[in-house]
Design a protein that fits this description.
Two copies of one chain form a homodimer. The first copy, chain A, has 216 residues and is of the alpha/beta class. Chain A has two domains: 78 residues, ACT domain (Alpha-Beta Plaits, 2-Layer Sandwich), CATH 3.30.70.260; 134 residues, Rossmann fold. Helices cover 40% and strands 31% of the residues of chain A. Chain A has a five-stranded parallel beta sheet, sandwiched between helices. Chain A has a four-stranded antiparallel beta sheet with strand order 2-3-1-4, covered by helices on one side. The radius of gyration of chain A is 20 Å and the shape is elongated. At the A-B interface, helix 1, strand 2, strand 3, helix 3 and helix 4 of A face helix 1, strand 2, strand 3, helix 3 and helix 4 of B.
């Protein structure tokens, strides 16, 4: 029994996902992650990671036999290809430095067989940053958040508290700055390059930095 | 009729997505993007963007009434919050510079109300880069790819050709380097910072750089 990923192209019409999910449910395949797009030509693309697959070929033949399916492709899961995500949110030169620190650190880990990517979201403004932080719990594969700015607090702090209460385990690293954001984050770092690098090391499986044991 | 996003928390069991999609299909709601996770505590989270919604409250009440649904939350779509994604793939200092160029350029656009993020995937090795490029067509919101390395070609070039043939319209910017990768990309740029910035300007709606009209 293993987890595999497939991409299904379909004729797009209301309810087509329902049909396909139904057909997979009958066979006791368990969809653990899926996303669906409607393409510009009005066809649909469904990406699915499915648990409990005994026979890949049987699954593919089965999906191919579903009406409205035009093709099925079998491949590695997005987690295998892209791995963990570290998201950096903030603005200005310091934020770019934090992304750079994360990326350079990720290179070392990726050479050793890990997969960590660093996503930079250059935005300012309390409301925009608040929205971006809250929505992180809805993004796949995110393991750490780095906040880089001149001053953060209030609604941003509330957003972090809310993120921490969600089911996801997301480490929050904050640059040293004025504002009560520091009270909600896991670690505060002075240097932006180091903040990015530290976030990557904290989510790494190899050469992991256990910050909690360093600060006693 | 508008597009709205909801997050549904459910009891996780095989087929629960099917049940929910079925209930939405009956009501003629059209799911245009969805993703589903299984959380560590074995509950499920379903994020859905749904087209053709006339009454938000009616939808939320309706979803709440479905068995196995524990909560429903209504919010902005991920596209509204995170916007377009530029992905930079490659390794070394130049790659970090390309990400930095993209991020600094994105700041200007985001201040003006756009949403563009830059995702750095620091990897080397033909096979790994090939996999990452092919899988980009399965990622949401990606508009441009920047390739930064010392030499790329062969299977990487084939992967770009395949990406170009997919339904997605993704701009490919490549650093000047040896290898036939240049033949498959849209633009070749000498300076890595400029390559990242250019990719952001090419996907922007405001202050858009129309490269094709510059090189005649």
């Amino acid at each position: 029994m293993k987890t595999i990923a497939i991409t299904i192209k379909t004729v797009e019409k209301t309810g087509v996902l329902h049909q396909i999910a139904e057909k997979l449910a009958i066979k006791n395949f368990n969809i653990i992650y899926t996303h669906l797009f409607v393409e510009e030509d009005n066809t649909g693309t469904i990406y699915m990671e499915i648990e409990g697959v005994e026979d890949d070929h049987e699954l593919i033949n089965y999906v191919n036999s579903i009406s409205d399916v035009t093709s099925v492709e079998f491949h590695k899961t997005l987690s295998d290809i892209y791995g963990k995500r570290v998201i950096v949110v903030g603005d200005g030169e310091f934020m770019a430095q934090a992304v750079k620190g994360g990326i350079m650190e990720a290179e070392k880990h990726n050479i050793n067989g890990e997969r960590i990517s660093v996503d930079g979201m250059m935005i300012g403004g309390g409301t925009q940053i608040q929205e971006a932080i809250i929505a992180i719990s809805r993004l796949p594969r995110v393991c750490a958040l780095v906040l880089s700015g001149s001053m953060m607090g209030g609604k941003i702090t509330n957003a972090i508290t809310r993120l921490k209460e969600s089911d996801k385990e997301i480490i929050v690293v904050t640059l040293q700055m004025p504002g009560d954001v520091l009270t909600a984050s896991d670690v505060t770092v002075n240097d932006p390059v180091q903040a990015g690098a530290m976030a990557v090391r904290m989510v790494s499986d190899i050469d992991k930095l256990d910050v909690y044991n360093q600060i006693i």
